Amino acid sequence: MTTYSNRKPRISEIAQLAGVSTSTVSKVINGRSGISPKTRTQVENALTRLGYTKPLVSTKVSRTIEIIAEYIENNGTIELIRHASVWGKRFQLGITVNQNNPGEPLNDCLRQIISRNPSGVIIQQLSKLSDEDRGLLDSRDIPWVLVDPVDVPEPDVNTISVDNWTGGFRATQHLIEQGHTRIGAISGLKRTQSAIARFSGYLAALRQAGIDYDPAITRESDYRSEGGYRAACSLLDMTNPPTAIFSCNDLTAVNVYKAAGERGLSVPEDLSVVGFDDVYPSAYLNPPLTTVEQPFDAIAEAAIRMIMDIRAGRDTDRHITLPTQLVVRGSVAAPRNG
């Protein structure tokens, strides 16, 4: 069996392992056309196995930004895409959106993206990238940014986050200021950083007000409609339900309204609700939803500027946390028996 030391592998060794000609290897390394996706993948796999570190260059960088998301629905993803499109035009960049479904390997999606050699990649709310995933992007020197990372990222990963803890704290504090003490919460998956931070802010506000935390009136969901609806039904069907619910995203809050209406409860007379995101249709609900605003415009701008600065070799802040703010509307009132 052939073994390889730490020396740089020869083109002939790469070709032998990939089962192609040396000229084909050269074309892949230098980003030339005329290679089928299957053959290119074979060569790139061989390069990875042999520890080949020379960047795979392309003759032309596409003036596009690729966005990767697991869910493309009204949980913040659509707002990010919308604002990225606006900022893309200002930078004369196109925007391409990729949905990588939960459970599907990101590797396949990334291989398609690097074959297009974009100016950069924005990755939203995905789990930790594997070393192979990172290697694919780095092999083409494609700048990439994690927006709202699910896991705690490595120090060398470019990130843009929002102040989720303060958002959760202010949402809960607002309910307390209106006289609520039995405040339920529907969180996102507690393996995600945003859900952990928002729920931690909720707990901190309760502690500051001297209110005992009652785990019986909290539920874990997944930021999606079905899970939010089930969680809301579970809370409202309790013998002694909460008088207010902090929904850790607006999509969940919409389903709290739905569950409340089905049970003859009025918002805010019978139940106060606060959301998180400030996305459509929050301002158009009846009553309009009090929520925590995520600055999606600033997120999109920061992500694209970071990518373009890295592409141009300019110094840039690689870790950005943007503020959130409470938007008070009509979904909170004093508890009926308060």
TrEMBL record:
Gene3D superfamilies associated with the record: 3.40.50.2300, lambda repressor-like DNA-binding domains
Segments forming a coiled coil: none
Keywords: DNA-binding, Transcription, Transcription regulation
Residue ranges constituting the HTH lacI-type domain according to the UniProt record: 9-63
Keyword RNA-binding (UniProt): no
Molecular-function annotations in GO: DNA-binding transcription factor activity; transcription cis-regulatory region binding
Pfam families named among the record's database cross-references: LacI, Peripla_BP_3
InterPro entries linked: HTH_LacI, LacI/GalR-like_sensor, Lambda_DNA-bd_dom_sf, Peripla_BP_I
PANTHER family, sorted: LACI-RELATED TRANSCRIPTIONAL REPRESSOR, LACTOSE OPERON REPRESSOR
Protein's recorded name: LacI family transcriptional regulator
Species per Swiss-Prot/TrEMBL record: Bifidobacterium catulorum
Origin organism lineage: Bacteria, Bacillati, Actinomycetota, Actinomycetes, Bifidobacteriales
